[in-house]
């Protein structure tokens, strides 16, 4: 029988909450993490807000050995700590498991930007002898996977996927594939951070960054006032396991099952063909073996740009019918976290499943008329969630969907 | 640092800590001259980082094969101080 992939551990570092429970509580209270940029002087730039993990809430030196600090970018430090928390949450001590029974697949949108910028500045301002030897890997897309693997002695099938926001779901899809091929435990998800001038320029080049100055007014997905998004940092690392292996080790009841996954790529903008999202949703549902009426909530990509919001609302309405399913956009509180955003939405979906409540879309007061979606706004909405759909789209047309179902009775 | 004529073990340990951190389970404060770097928790990349810093601070150039052969702090110091004594 094909192994079932279940999520057993959550590790969260988000702008509005460090720790899965802290993130969830803040999200239900509609507490945001978007603030004026603090990691560099944003004055010369047209956009100056970001979803930032506060230094007061996360000090890497409290959690990691000093050997790891000189060789890691900020995103890697957060990923390593989130992985530690996810493993603890799952009740797994990696030292007790065979090295080749554990793998790591994370997503990365841009690698270690802040570290890379510092070393490139050293290169051109001081010379090659001033470039850190650790630059050789600290900037690299696969570095979070590699460092998590080394720290925890995980030598099973591992890798990195790169697909901007969509990559965060692709990582979980690949983790499920590895579990189906016989690896009992995978670390997956993503954490990104690129809040340095070099990274900021890359964000601005998308021309989809909000230039509003007020934190509660800058990123309003699906709203009539939508005007682009606010980038953010952080994400979530998850432990995904073969359900049988969880039973054998006497593990706790999983958060949920990774039941379906699909990915696609948008056609060229001038092709006249429709975006990939609707087909990707339909294929993910088919992969999970669920029909649209069985889906209790959609966690939207929530791009925050009117054209992309319309396209997403149209795909959701086409599959589920107008106002046919509650739509959640908790990322309105955190900003868009590159690869980390979708895994954080997966955490929100699993928390919704566990607690029977849907999170509000932060400062968004309602979806624009004509979008035809039932956006959860204002206050948390009590709602039984057995099946949830998480959507993610990345710059360049990357499109992915993941279906989560509540754990079956024997789990 | 240009006035310094020789690198001491104490200074080397300080540079190691700053360049590559230190393993919580290993005591660097004793006489570690003859303890292999690998037993002190430092891999080849940590030594490359440390050697880069020493070369910048002291204005010397160390050949890769010299560094590769310096498997202990004592051997590393000998290689560095030989270059310093030679004045290049």
Walk me through what this model shows.
The complex is a heterodimer of chains A (411) and B (88). Chain A is of the alpha/beta class and 411 residues long. Chain A is built from 12 helices and 16 strands. Chain A is globular and about 60 Å long. With 88 residues, chain B is mainly alpha-helical. Chain B has 4 helices and no strands. Chain B has helices at residues 9-20, 44-58, 64-69, 73-86. The interface between A and B is medium-sized, with 13 and 16 residues.
Produce a short descriptive summary:
The complex is a heterodimer of chains A (411) and B (88). Chain A has 411 residues and is α/β, with parallel strands linked by helices.
Give the topology.
The complex is a heterodimer of chains A (411) and B (88).
Chain A (H helix, E strand, L loop, with lengths): L4 E10 L2 E2 L1 H9 L5 E3 L12 E3 L8 H4 L10 H17 L11 E6 L5 H13 L9 H4 L4 H10 L6 E3 L2 H17 L4 E8 L4 H8 L29 E9 H6 L7 E10 L11 H12 L8 E3 L6 H15 L5 E3 L12 H15 L1 E2 L15 E2 L5 E2 L4 E8 L3 E8 L6
Parallel strand pairs in A: 5-6, 5-7, 10-11, 10-15, 11-13
Antiparallel strand pairs in A: 1-2, 1-8, 1-9, 3-4, 7-8, 9-16, 12-14, 15-16
Helix pairs in contact in A: 3-6, 10-11
Chain B lengths: L8 H12 L23 H15 L5 H6 L3 H14 L2
Helix pairs in contact in B: 1-2
What is the total number of structural domains of chain B?
A: 1
Query: What is the ordering of alpha helices and beta strands of chain B?
Result: HHHH
Low-confidence stretches of chain A: none
In CATH terms, the superfamily of the largest domain in chain A is Thiolase/Chalcone synthase
Strand content of chain B: under 5%
Which features would summarize this protein structure in a list?
heterodimer; A: 411 residues; alpha/beta; Peroxisomal Thiolase, Chain A, domain 1; 2 domains; two-stranded antiparallel sheet; B: 88 residues; mainly alpha; Non-ribosomal Peptide Synthetase Peptidyl Carrier Protein, Chain A
């Amino acid at each position: 029988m094909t192994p079932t992939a279940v999520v057993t551990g959550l590790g969260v570092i988000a702008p509005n909450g460090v720790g899965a429970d802290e993130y969830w509580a803040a999200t239900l209270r509609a507490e945001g993490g978007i603030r004026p940029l603090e990691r560099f002087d944003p004055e010369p730039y047209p956009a100056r807000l970001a979803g930032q993990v506060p230094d007061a809430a996360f000090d890497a030196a409290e959690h990691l050995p000093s050997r790891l600090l000189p060789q890691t970018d900020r995103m890697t430090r957060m990923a390593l700590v989130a992985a530690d928390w996810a493993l603890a949450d799952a009740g797994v001590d990696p030292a007790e498991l065979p090295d080749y029974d554990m793998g790591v697949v994370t997503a990365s949108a841009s690698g270690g930007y802040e570290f890379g910028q510092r070393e490139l500045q050293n290169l051109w301002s001081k010379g090659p002898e001033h470039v850190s030897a650790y630059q050789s890997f600290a900037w690299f897309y696969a570095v979070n996977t590699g460092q998590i693997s080394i720290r925890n002695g995980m030598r099973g099938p591992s890798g990195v996927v790169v697909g901007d926001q969509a990559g965060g779901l692709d990582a979980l899809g690949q983790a499920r594939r590895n579990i189906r091929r016989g690896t009992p435990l995978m670390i997956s998800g993503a954490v990104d951070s690129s809040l340095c001038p070099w990274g900021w320029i890359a964000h601005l080049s998308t021309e989809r960054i909000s230039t509003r100055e007020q934190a509660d007014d800058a990123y309003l997905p699906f709203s009539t006032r939508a005007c682009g998004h606010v980038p953010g940092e952080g994400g979530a690392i998850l432990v995904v396991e073969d359900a049988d292996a969880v039973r054998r080790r006497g593990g706790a009841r999983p958060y949920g099952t990774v039941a379906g996954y699909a990915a696609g790529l948008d056609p060229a903008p001038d092709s006249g063909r429709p975006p990939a999202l609707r087909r990707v949703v339909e294929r993910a549902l088919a992969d999970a073996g669920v029909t649209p009426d069985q889906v209790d909530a959609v966690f939207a990509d929530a791009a925050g740009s009117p054209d992309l919001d319309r396209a997403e609302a149209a795909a959701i309405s086409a599959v589920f019918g107008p106002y046919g399913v509650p739509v959640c956009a908790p990322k309105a509180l955190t900003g868009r976290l590159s690869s980390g955003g979708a895994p954080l939405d997966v955490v929100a979906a699993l928390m919704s499943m566990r607690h029977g409540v849907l999170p509000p879309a932060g400062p968004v007061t309602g979806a624009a008329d004509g979008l035809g979606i039932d956006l959860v706004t204002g206050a948390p909405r009590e709602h039984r969630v057995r099946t949830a759909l998480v959507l993610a789209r990345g710059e360049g047309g990357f499109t992915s969907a993941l279906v989560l179902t509540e754990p079956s009775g024997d789990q | 640092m240009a006035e310094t004529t020789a690198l001491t073990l104490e200074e080397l340990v300080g540079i190691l800590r700053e360049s590559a951190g230190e393993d919580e389970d290993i005591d660097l404060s004793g006489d570690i001259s003859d303890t292999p770097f690998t037993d002190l928790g430092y891999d080849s990349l940590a030594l490359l980082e440390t050697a880069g810093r020493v070369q910048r601070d002291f204005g010397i150039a160390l050949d890769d094969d010299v560094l590769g052969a310096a498997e202990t702090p004592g051997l590393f110091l000998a290689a560095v101080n030989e270059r310093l004594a030679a004045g290049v």
